[in-house]
Each structure stands twice: as structure tokens, then as C-alpha cells.
Design a protein that fits this description.
The protein is mainly beta. Helix content is 8%, strand content 38%. A six-stranded mixed barrel has the order 3-4-11-5-10-9. It has a four-stranded antiparallel beta sheet with strand order 18-17-23-24, with helices on one face.
Length: 428
């Protein structure tokens, strides 16, 4: 995948009769931001693992408005910004410049809101303000105060949005931290950005052609979009240690390579009595990760069907991004990849078919003789130490993804996302 500098830019749109959208709805263009391998933006303890490409959105915060660039993450709840500490971090948010910035006191009910994003319970600092810590499994973390401020999209103002103003933390890559300002939490929790905005539905579409796309808040009727296939969200009434109840959890029921369905019992895809084994749709993760038994079965079947098409990269010590251990040598002089068997994830009521270049990703900078190294874009959750199936945004490319919170379902349909952006009147 080509490395591109990216951000979301907000535009006024030229509407046509091919779709309808209310004045209260919002529509934004989308791009992808490349980050180095090993850089981790996710503040979710359970799913904090390395990925190297993030979706980001640009918006304004504060009064007067300050431009910020944030990772779009359906796998997290708390929205947070890095608060400016020095002139060397120009993308950080400076609360001292905002007249509408208000810290959350310890006595506020907001300070007692429970969220899985806090691996350490919120506490009071010396100023009696609500203090929060977001930690990663690699021992990095961010911490600071919860606060309120005004977030702005184009001409829309959203006053009193709760977010984390993070002023300290540890990181494995300070240089890259300065390129993004924070994270936009988009799951179903009460503190998530979409919940605070009051929208019961949002959608996005990511193009694989030029790493652009579109993000929409609200209900949009589009005549040229083929009907969506819906899969219900899995809801758990009681708390379980390994089940995230505010994630967009769907039920994976099987996987097929070409026309061959993996010979596994359906029970292997169902969460166990601890909640481990849920399947989450996560825009904050690049690739897709499967629990060990399913990953191994998929790997073996893909190897079997591509034996005459691809040459395996035989290096047992190389595992791309810590979890992707099936890689191939591809001659640099070759124009494109051979025709590969599709990998289809079968959900309750819907399917997501992964084809072509989305099945393999080139490892940046790794050349062996005349060969580039390409790795299978499915990884092993067990190698990451996570107890979940995670559907990353790479496999959501050229899919219209609708998150219908009101009706507790996720809708999807194949579409050319670059053309969708054009039809919606977005010029990038």
C-alpha cells in the first residue's frame, strides 16, 4: 500500500436528486493516514495492538476554533486530544486558548461514568478535577483531565462534548505522535462521540483506489446504492470479563476460501462463557485478526489453493506486525498479483468477500533478491494476546458500512467508494 499523508477535510456539498439528506445530517470526505509499523493509536486495553495505517478526520475544537486531526475508531469510546505543552507539538490542542473549554470536576456525574477505555478508574487530582488514564498493553499510556468543549463540523457546532485532555503519557514514537492530535471514539458507549452527537446511525465508505472515501452522520437515502445486507449486533445483557458490550459485535458464522467452507464447527465462532471470542467491526484496526484455530484453518486452506500461484516466503522468524505469519515472494517485475481465491467472511444475514489486492499487503522496504514480500492480510489473534475476532478497515474497503445503532445492526454492500464520493458531490 502506498504511503500517503492524509487527513479528513470538511466540505460544503452540492446535493443532487440522487439522494436525500436532512439539514441535521453531516457528510465528510475520508482519506487514510500512513503511520510506521508498530505505531498504536488505540486506547482500548483489550484490543490494543499494533497496526500501521489509521483513518483520520480533521475538525475544529474550541473557541476560537483550533484545527485537530483525529483517528476514527469504532472500537473505542472516549474521544481524547493531546493537549499542547510546547511549541514543538503544533498539532496538539491548547485548552488555554479556548474560551469554551471547561474541565470536568470530580463531583460531576460525568466523572463516574464507566467505560472499558479506562484500565485504571478515574480519580480526583489535586485541583479536584476528574483525572483519567488510558493504557496500552505495550505499557504506553496517555493521561489527563476529562473536559467539555465545542466541536465543529463545517457550520455545525456541538457544545459541551466530553473528551479527554491528555497532557502526559509515554509513547514508542514521539515523532509520529506529533502528526495526529488524538482519537475520535465511535462505539456505542455513552461517552462516545456519535452518542454525544445524538445520531443513531452513521456510515462510511473507504476507497482502495486512492485511499479516499466518505463519512456520513445520520440517515441518508441513496437511490444508486444497492440494498444493504444487515447483520444484527450481538448484545450481552450481563457483564463478562472479555466481552466488550459497547463494541459493534456481529456473529461470524463461517469462512470460505473460493467455494470451500472451512470445516470448523460454528461453536468456534461463538463467544464462550467469559465473553472471549466476540467478533468486532473496528475502524481503528487495519487488518483482520482471527482466533488461532480459525486462523490456522484459513491459512492452510489458502496455502492449498495458492500453491501453484504464489511462492511462500520461507523465513520462520519473520512475522509481519506480530501476527501475520503467511507471506509470499512476488517478483518485482511482475505486473500485479495473480488471480487469487476470494476469502469470504459469513455473518448472520450478510457476507463480506475479500478479493484481489486486499488479500495481500506489500511489506514496505523488504526486498529479497528480485522479490518483494507480500503478506496475507489476515492475522492470528493469539499471537497478539487478544481474545477476539477483529474485522479491520482494510477489509472494509469498497464496502458501504452502515452502523445502525437504533436498530442494533450493521449493514454492508459492495460499492466503488471512489465513485460514491463523486456522486455525493465531494471533490478531493
Amino acid at each position: 500500500m502506498a504511503s500517503v499523508s492524509l487527513f479528513f477535510i470538511l466540505y460544503s456539498l452540492l446535493f443532487t436528486s440522487s439522494y436525500s439528506i436532512s439539514d441535521k445530517n453531516l457528510i465528510l470526505p475520508l482519506k487514510i493516514k500512513s503511520l510506521p509499523t508498530g505505531y498504536d493509536q488505540k486506547p482500548t486495553n483489550k484490543l490494543s495492538f499494533h497496526h500501521n495505517v489509521s483513518l483520520t478526520v480533521s475538525l475544529s475544537v474550541g473557541s476560537p476554533p483550533q484545527q485537530v486531526t483525529m483517528v476514527l475508531d469504532t472500537g473505542s469510546e472516549l474521544t481524547w486530544l493531546r493537549c499542547k505543552k510546547s511549541p514543538t507539538t503544533p498539532l496538539w490542542y491548547d485548552p488555554l486558548r479556548s474560551k469554551s473549554y471547561t474541565p470536568v470536576p470530580c463531583t460531576s456525574p460525568t466523572c463516574s461514568t464507566r467505560t472499558r477505555d479506562f484500565t485504571v478508574p478515574v480519580s480526583c487530582d489535586s485541583r479536584k478535577l476528574c483525572h483519567a488514564i488510558v493504557s496500552y498493553v505495550d505499557a504506553t499510556s496517555v493521561e489527563g483531565n476529562l473536559a467539555y468543549d465545542t466541536f465543529r463540523f463545517t457550520n455545525s457546532e456541538l457544545p459541551g462534548i466530553v473528551f479527554g485532555c491528555m497532557d502526559t503519557g509515554s509513547s514508542s514514537n514521539q515523532d509520529e505522535d506529533s502528526k495526529t492530535t488524538g482519537l475520535l471514539g465511535m462505539n456505542r458507549g455513552s461517552l462516545s462521540f456519535v452518542s454525544q452527537m445524538g445520531y443513531s446511525k452513521f456510515s462510511y465508505c473507504i476507497s482502495s483506489r486512492d485511499s479516499t472515501g466518505v463519512l456520513l452522520f445520520g440517515d441518508v437515502k441513496i437511490s444508486w446504492l444497492k440494498p444493504l445486507s444487515y447483520t444484527p449486533l450481538v448484545n450481552m445483557s450481563r457483564p463478562l470479563p472479555y466481552f466488550d458490550r459497547v463494541a459493534y459485535t456481529v456473529q461470524l458464522e463461517g469462512i470460505k476460501v473460493g467455494t470451500s467452507i472451512l470445516g470448523l464447527p460454528k461453536s468456534v465462532y461463538v463467544p464462550d462463557h467469559t465473553g472471549a471470542g466476540q467478533t468486532m467491526v473496528d475502524s481503528g484496526t487495519q487488518f483482520t485478526f482471527l482466533l488461532g484455530p480459525v486462523y490456522i484453518a484459513l491459512k492452510n486452506e489458502f496455502l492449498k489453493q495458492t500453491r501453484s500461484l504464489l511462492r511462500v516466503y520461507e523465513d520462520p522468524d519473520f512475522v509481519y506486525q506480530g501476527a501475520m505469519d503467511l507471506c509470499y515472494r512476488v517478483d518485482r517485475s511482475r505486473a500485479g498479483l495473480p488471480v487469487l481465491p476470494s476469502v469470504t467472511m459469513m455473518f448472520r444475514g450478510a457476507e463480506m468477500s475479500i478479493t484481489g489486492e486486499r488479500l495481500l499487503v506489500q511489506v514496505p522496504g523488504l526486498i529479497k533478491g528480485n522479490d518483494q514480500i507480500h503478506c496475507f492480510t489476515f492475522g492470528n489473534s493469539d499471537l497478539l494476546g487478544i481474545e477476539a475476532y477483529v474485522i479491520g478497515h482494510h477489509h472494509q474497503e469498497n464496502m458501504w458500512m452502515e452502523f445502525d445503532i437504533a436498530n442494533s445492526r450493521v449493514g454492508l454492500a459492495e460499492v466503488r467508494c471512489d465513485l460514491a464520493s463523486q456522486k455525493l458531490g465531494i471533490g478531493l
